[in-house]
TrEMBL record:
InterPro entries: Arrestin-like_C (IPR014752), Arrestin-like_N (IPR011021). Residues 1-63 are annotated as: Disordered. Coiled coil: none annotated. It holds the Pfam family Arrestin_N. This is Arrestin-like N-terminal domain-containing protein. It comes from Hebeloma cylindrosporum. Residues 52-63 have a biased composition (Basic and acidic residues). Residues 83-235 form the Arrestin-like N-terminal domain.
Amino acid sequence: MSTANAPSEHPPTLPGMAIYDTGNPGTHSANAHELPNYLSNGRRGTASRPSGRSEPKEFDTKVEKKGRAIVTMTLVSEAAYSRTRPTFFEGTPVKGRVRLSLDQPDTIHSVVISVQGRFMTGINPEEQLTFIEISRTLWTQSDGAPKNARASDISYSQGGGKFTGKLKGEYIWPFSIDLPKEVMLPSGIGSNKVEAFPPPQTFNERKTLASINYEIYVRVARGRWKADHRMMSQFGYIPLTRPPPFPPLRLLAYQEGRALIDPTIDLEGWHSSRPARVHGTLFKDRVATILCTLFIAKPLSYTRGSLIPLCLRLEGDDPQALDILSSPKSILVRLRRHVRYQFPGKTGASEDTIEDSSPALWWPRVAGTEEISPTSEHMRYVNGELHLKVDLKPSSAMSHFRVEYSVVLFPFEAPEFEHSTEQAQPPGEAIIEQAVQIVTSFAPGPRPVKSAPGYDLSMQVHTAKPISAKNALV
């Protein structure tokens, strides 16, 4: 009989690690806000792992009889990101071994291992889409006797080397299976167009019906009238994605430990939203109109566990309204995640779940340094930063399943200012929304760091090491 533990979704994060995943441990038996400072006074590819290879960790799944393991499948992955279940990142083979332990002679026809990647919205076959399916025969009778088979148990069929005896004792078959970097799937339900998609990260969340699962199966085929030994274990998969290089002035600021330069000066370093007009009533007695522009640091691709630098510009003819809406307590910006998926076998049936992050941190700009542009009584700048959780699922796009992110400016939250009825936003609606990507690895070079007025930026400069097969940042 087989048993296995259910996976968990909260892995450890080591210093310098952006890639992680979780799962379930060990032996399975088949039976404080820091204020950052930007306007202060003042793509897909090979990714890298932490320097120094972590120790391997083994995870066992067993078929047992009377408390004794008959078949044991062992998966071997790096301990750094495999706290509770084996986890493999893109470009790393799924490795392990199968052990067969027989006290009594038994007829074994073959030992086969297979790996599946599946998108699921239910337990029925029509609610599932298999996008990876790889099978390997570790041993079959046609291969002849296993290396450590006992001579007394070996016999061969006439005219060939096929093994027809029984096995007894211990037998071990190692395996190593490479997962594809791309899978070919229809571009959508009912579509005849086939496209290449990168396999997404393992995805299992209670609030979302859809899931992405990676599983490995072992089947030990036995003699006539005997039940085969079967087992299954789940493992985690992490794609390796990284952002493009920083624009020159942003790169220089990180290298020198300085604040980022004003978006009105460093035009290449910031993405500027289309200005949005906000109409409302101040103190219930006068109308005010404010023009809002949200700046987001380029490139619009960010490593989970890091941060998104922000800047908000407010323009208007009412200085008091500008002061109220530029207060850090009035500004609400969040990272929004959309999980969009279609139900296999149901044309037109789809779901879209939305989840918003904790709000960004904001702080007033202090004028008087060369890094910022002049201000006036009709304009306000506010610095901001969104801190990204290390356990964010990366952006992904597959025919039936997508994880997408955007930075959203919501209506201002100021008791002195009431948004006009004509412009009142339904709950959760955005004033400004900009699509961004979340990736799993840092680009080479300095990394974004948190900073604040009086915070020593020079002590926070971290540089990613050059990429290599054995020195990759996760």
